[in-house]
Amino acid sequence: MESDSEMVAFPLLPIPIESNYRACTIPYRFPSDNPRKATPTEISWIDLFSNSIPSFKKRAESDTTVPDAPVRAEKFAQRYAEILEDLKKDPESHGGPPDCILLCRIRELILRELGFRDIFKKVKDEENAKAISLFPEVVRLSDAIEDEGKRIENLVRGIFAGNIFDLGSAQLAEVFSKDGMSFLASCQNLIPRPWVIDDLENFQARWVKKPWKKAVIFVDNSGADIILGILPFAREMLRRGMQVVLAANELPSINDVTYTELAEILSKLKDENGQLMGVDTTNLLIANSGNDLPVIDLARVSQEVAYLSTDADLVILEGMGRGIETNLYAQFKCDSLKIGMVKHPEVAQFLGGRLYDCVIKYNEVAQS
Question: Ranges for the Damage-control phosphatase ARMT1-like metal-binding domain (predicted)?
Fold first, then answer.
C-alpha cells in the first residue's frame, strides 16, 4: 500500500528512534493488561471506527469508477464490521492489538482490495473548487492585519477553521452532507480560548522575534483545510523569507489531500509569474510523504520527504490524525508545532477538553 521505494525514519526524530518515538498518542493498553482481552480504550476506539462504516459505505456505493460499487460497498461494510468484532473478542487477531493506525490500515486495505481507490474523490474536487474561489479574499483579509502577532493568530485560527472539513469524523460527515460548511463562519465560531492545549503566545513570540529558516508541514485535508488554512499560513512564512516544504499523502485516504492533488491546487492558485497573491513561491516545495493513511508513523516516511526535511528547523504536524491522535507528544531535534481540531469525543475525553476544541502545541528546542 505504501511507496514502492524504501521507507526511512524521519531524520528529525531523536535517535535511537526505537526507544524515543511512539507514533500513537493514546495508550490503548499497558503491559499489565491481559493480551487476550480487549481493554476499555481499545473497545471504545473499535466502536468509533464501527460508527464510521455507514458513511464510508455510502461514499463507496456512489463511486462511479468501480463496477458493481453498491455490491462491493456492502462487502466492505460486512468485512470491516466482522474484523472489528474479531478484535473485540481477540485483540491480537488481524495484526493487533488495535490502535488508530491499525484500525485505519485495515479499513484502507479492505477498500483497496475491493477496487476502491478514492471514494472521496468527488467531494474533494468539489471542495477544492469552492476553496480556490475563496482563497484571494481570505489572503486579503489576512494581509490587511498590520499587527504581526494578530496576523499570526488569524492564520492559526484559519487552520482550525479549515481543519473542520474532515469526513473521517462520523458526526462531521453527517453535518457536511446536510449543510456544507462556511469557512469564514467557522473562523468566527471556534471554541473560545483558552483551548485544551494552547501555546499560541509562545509560538507567536518566537515567530515574531526570530523566524525559522525552513519548515516542513505534514498537511491534512483537501478543500478549506489545505487551501484556506495551510496555504495562507505557508504564504506568510514565504513572505518572511522562509523555505516551506508541504508533505502530503502518496495515496488517497478519506478526504486527505494527496501529493498529486496538492500540485494541481497550487498550479491553479499561482499566477503567470508563479506567485501566490504577490508572494514568490520559489521556496515553496511539495513532497510525497509516502503515507497512505489519515494518521502517520514517522518511523516510516518517503526518502523524498526525509531528504527535504534534513535541514528544517521547524516541523509542523497538522490535523487531528497526524498531530493529535498520532505524534502529539513526539519529540524532534528541532522546534515543532502540533496543530489541529479535536473531532472525536474519545480524543476530547483523553485530553480533558471539549469536542471541537483546538490544540496548538509548540515545543522549542534550545539550539547549541
Answer: 50-359
